[in-house]
Amino acid sequence: MAGWSALPYDLIESIANLLNAAEDFLSFSSVCRSWRLVYKSKNWHPGFQLPWLMLGEMQTNKGSMRQFLSMCKFKFHYLPFPETQDFRCWGACQELVITINPRFEVRLVNPFTHACIDLPSITTLNIQGAARDCWFSFIHKAKYFKIQNEYMVFIIYGPRFEVAFTRSGDSIWSLVQSLIPARFVDVVCFKDQIMALSIVGTLFSLETNGVDPPRMLCVSPPPQQEKSWQKMYLVESSGDLLILFSYPSGNMVSRFRAYRFDISKREWMRLEDLGTNVLLVDTDICTSLPACDYLQRNCIYFVHDNLDSLLASGPRCMGNYMSVYNLKENYTDFMNLGNDNSFRYISATWVLPSLW
Q1: pLDDT recorded at residue 133
Q2: pLDDT exceeding 90 applies to what percent of the chain?
Q3: Which one of 17, 34, 82, 300 is at 20 to 30 Å from 40 when CA atoms are compared?
């Protein structure tokens, strides 16, 4: 039997650098004490990481656990995540999850290391009246970006679908004004510039330098060909800005149409091929990633919430499921992710496993 603990440090470190999947790193750290010391030193550099799908809370004999699906291994993992128990969460293939609780306290949390960053309370936005009783639906969308070595967190909130943000070192949330009245549905960071999408599909850019308060400037009208969509998403993909339209298509699956923004012409161009990329979509957020052995190129992976299951009057046979839509072939595959035994609303979201 080989003496694994006696291997030279440099060789053990070289082995660590060959690993990609988060669960492989955890197994690596469990081999023996010397391997765990290499793991804890963080001198290794993980390669491309596939996201995990964060699902609902499950009650186990070890207490409340959060269910995760590894896309690399297509295996379910159950991890303690008390920082999100009974909270609403947003991911977006980042290593940090945004959480909000009934007291309107907002945090950035790493699901794997449990490191937390406290953000200013939403109450700094002067929340009035009935909104205080509707904390779960008060924020429609939340997104986290890293821009020039600082973080920015954006929310779309309230009955008027307004935009506010906070960044590193801020003690309040800054409300964004718009020169044109608009209700917003998405924001994205594109080449260090914040872009936003209105409920009718108009594209805006955020101006912050030298402006008080920050304001949205109109950039382009929506693609004129699209009507009666169900949802819209903005996403940066390999240096391009895309808009994705979701349409219901029966049997609880969706079809999609994508457009690329031509910056020189300031207009949207129909996109029928994602090239070597894939799009990961949940009910709130869309992210672009390179295709790989586990994600088919030119496909859109759309994970549904469990609202249909909660509203079903018959047997609770519907659960977590995912549609895989081929944009070029206009064809959808269906993936069942298991029954959902939760009696609360769950909006599955994508997270990037980070052990740092």
Answers
A1: 64
A2: 37
A3: 82
Q: Is the pLDDT of residue 153 over 80?
A: yes
Tell me which residue of 251, 278, 244 sits closest to 336, measured CA to CA.
Answer: 251
CATH number at residue 17: 1.20.1280
Residue closest to 140 by CA, chosen among 90, 78, 70: 90
Residue 77, beta-bridge partner list: 68
- Radius of gyration in angstroms for the set of CA atoms belonging to the chain, rounded to a whole number: 21
Q: Same structural domain for residues 212 and 292?
A: yes
DSSP H helical ranges for 114-234: 135-138
> Are residues 40 and 58 both part of a single domain?
no
How many domains does the chain fold into?
A: 2
Strands 277-281 and 299-303: parallel
Q: Is the pLDDT at 315 greater than 50, yes or no? A: no
| The 52-60 sheet, strands edge to edge | 75-79, 63-70, 52-60, 349-351
Strand 215-220 relative to strand 177-178, pairing: parallel
The answer to whether 332 and 249 have CB atoms below 8 angstroms apart is yes
Q: How far is 260 from 251, CA to CA, in rounded Å?
A: 29
Closest CA to 287 of 299, 278, 276: 278
Phi and psi based region of residue 4 (left: phi greater than 0; alpha: psi -120 to 50; beta: remaining)? alpha
Give me the sheet containing 203-207, strands edge to edge: 177-178, 215-220, 203-207, 193-198, 184-190
Distance in angstroms (rounded) separating the CA atoms of residues 79 and 282: 21
Q: Are 298 and 178 in the same domain?
A: yes
Residue 356 lies in a domain: no
